[in-house]
């Protein structure tokens, strides 16, 4: 990955040698062995059905993203009636209360990051299929960022969970989680699964495939 | 990617053929599950929302969307979702999201009103809402139809329609201090409340909607009279002064009492919506147990000064009705007599059996028999008049006519006309007196008196003549001399006179001699021998008197 990896026209990949790294212990063995000689994990050249799984989790996340944002995430039953808050109404509320930092944090963690994560994964999947001309290194960086940020988008769910546990003052104030909380946690988990399912090596596979004109079996990675 | 593939093909090692017969990987279940889960959550969310209801209020005062909740008997059953101005800008439409399964509450006749702090003399309510904020109360109706658009009440009804009881209307000319929330009493026991007070512009009376609780509803009959029992009632009657005070609360906030007045027909049990008259006091109900439903017009050709609205109309002292109005508005053009509109209840004159049969009193028949209206003097002090309806003897025949919508009741002149008749009668009596004879006799007497006077004058003249004679005047001097002599003789005879002094002395001496003689005679009577022995001898032998 240092300055110029491309000048050498034929960097030899492990897969081209028929070698696969174990998913669990990382030991490199010939894929023909079938199972890792060290830990007996099944060996694959690439994560099996990587793109398919990524897409599936991604689509599920997108589906649940809609109710997560439109339905109330929590109901505050306090003096003067019950109040139902969606994530966006909460953001608007904080913004109106001039708590701009809080509004920005909630908006970023709860709306923006999941959305960006989904977009990034879609982009990566398309790139893995060769639908994007973006440099593989940029894509690789995007993948790292996606994985890194994805964990922090659980903020809202944690906030709701903590509030529900802490604020139970009987008649004065009660907070109950709404259906959006469930959807939201599902979105976060599904995007994490989606990111985990993605095999970043596919980006590089596509990249190395391009300079090599002898593409005899282009369908192989997709099958696996 | 081609490298491993070519590699694997070039090396002619035996290699397992990769078979992926399944077209769909199991992982695709995940989005379907997500879809199902999301759909279920959304469906569940909207299903749990319940029906949306629109209520129209005059103002959205203290209604906040998302905060104000809707309660039925203190159970929260919904939440205000939105408050918008109505299209005509005259009211507000409050959209209420009811809780699921609350369709049963949204029936025809359901009532909505805002519960907020209300403080008045008669009623303190909704104080709790000072802290918790106002809420909308729902009183479920009993209609069949589902309704989702309602008109909200501006004021809370005091009793919800689900409470069994009797709802009546009281009409009052003078409502007094009776107000919303004022209690209704029966024999001092609180059995109901005034729910609403309104003013009827047409009849110019105050209407009260009242509620009588269920166990007491059967106390109200058609013959029941309601009267205002607020304040202290002091009445002076033939039996002296009476002071009646209601309960303290009734004194403060007013109250009404009802009962069947003595002598009145009880009638059937009252039904919802029956209209009763609210009398100013209990006394009035006794006097006015009638329903003045017949309006008649009277025309008087004399002054009605002293006759006022509400003046009584009586038949030989029995109240029949009252004067409604005195105005030329009721007179046909060219009418010079004063029109007086009265309302009467002729059924007062029926006996109970007639009342039961609901027989009508035929006024026209009575008029043909001489029933007439007259002005009577109710009070000599104030000159107040009342209308006296009575049979008049020798009245000129009359019938009941009609002017406009009113029957015209024939009148009979009274007052000045009657006075004239009385004066006539007096004059007739005077005429019958034997004034002429008296005058003749008086003339004779006068003549003889004249003669006597003449004689007297002649006698006086002779006396004068006699007196003026000289002899008569000298006689006076002689008389004077004689009198002087007489006075002198008399004075000598007086106590200080010389004759009387001598006489006194002689008499004294005579008296002393007589006394001595009397003593002597007494002594001789007692002791005849005293002449010999002396007077002092007592007992013993008489001793000759010795010298002392
Ligand atoms: Zn291993």
UniProtKB/TrEMBL annotation, chain A:
Task: Give the subcellular location.
Answer: Cell inner membrane
Q: Which residues form a coiled coil?
A: none
Q: Which domain of life is it from?
A: Bacteria
Q: Give the record's keywords alphabetically.
A: Cell inner membrane, Cell membrane, Membrane, Transmembrane, Transmembrane helix
Q: Where is it mainly found?
A: membrane
Pull one GO CC term from this UniProt entry: plasma membrane
Q: Which InterPro entries match?
A: PqiA-like, PqiA-PqiB_transport
Regions crossing the membrane? 55-80, 100-127, 148-173, 179-198
Q: Which PANTHER family match?
A: INTERMEMBRANE TRANSPORT PROTEIN PQIA, INTERMEMBRANE TRANSPORT PROTEIN PQIB-RELATED
Name of this chain's protein: Paraquat-inducible membrane protein A
Query: Which species does this protein come from?
Result: Phragmitibacter flavus
UniProtKB/TrEMBL annotation, chain B:
Instruction: Determine if Transmembrane helix is one of this entry's keywords.
Output: yes
Lineage, top-rank taxon, reads Bacteria
Q: Name one GO cellular component term.
A: plasma membrane
Residue ranges annotated for the Mce/MlaD domain, each copy included: 52-141, 165-223, 300-391
Asked if the Swiss-Prot or TrEMBL record annotates the protein with the keyword Protein biosynthesis, the reply is no
Q: Which residues cross the membrane?
A: 24-43
Pfam families for the chain: MlaD
Key words, A-Z: Cell inner membrane, Cell membrane, Membrane, Transmembrane, Transmembrane helix
Q: Where in the cell is it found?
A: Cell inner membrane
InterPro entries given in the database record: Mce/MlaD (IPR003399), PqiA-PqiB_transport (IPR051800)
Q: Which PANTHER family match?
A: INTERMEMBRANE TRANSPORT PROTEIN PQIB, INTERMEMBRANE TRANSPORT PROTEIN PQIB-RELATED
Could you tell me what this protein is called? Intermembrane transport protein PqiB
